[in-house]
Write a structure and sequence with these properties.
The structure is a single chain. The protein is α+β, with helices and mostly antiparallel strands. It is about 35% helix and about 15% strand. It contains three helices and two strands, in the order ααββα. It has a two-stranded antiparallel sheet. The protein is globular, with a radius of gyration of 15 Å.
Length: about 80
């Protein structure tokens, strides 16, 4: 495995596929979460359910605020 394996067991190059899909696909639905499905080397992207901390709006907002701060941008007001 020339790309190396991330701690999750997935190939590092494949871990970005759901992110790229969500950011660029005309079929991606806003406010949705996408993840891999199928065998690791042939994974497809599909909608996935939000779970645990992903359902906590206060945590999500705090992460959004911190991301804006670290990136030096500002998009939405709380």
């Amino acid at each position: 495995m020339g790309e190396g394996v991330a701690r999750t067991g997935q190939l590092r190059g494949l871990t970005v596929v759901p992110i790229l899909y969500a950011a660029t696909s005309p079929d991606a639905v806003p406010d949705s979460f996408y993840g891999p499905t199928g065998p690791k080397l042939h994974a497809r992207v599909q909608p996935a359910a939000f779970t645990g901390p992903g359902l906590d709006r206060d945590t999500a907002w705090a992460l959004w605020e911190k991301s804006q701060q670290l990136a030096g941008v500002h998009y939405l007001d709380g």
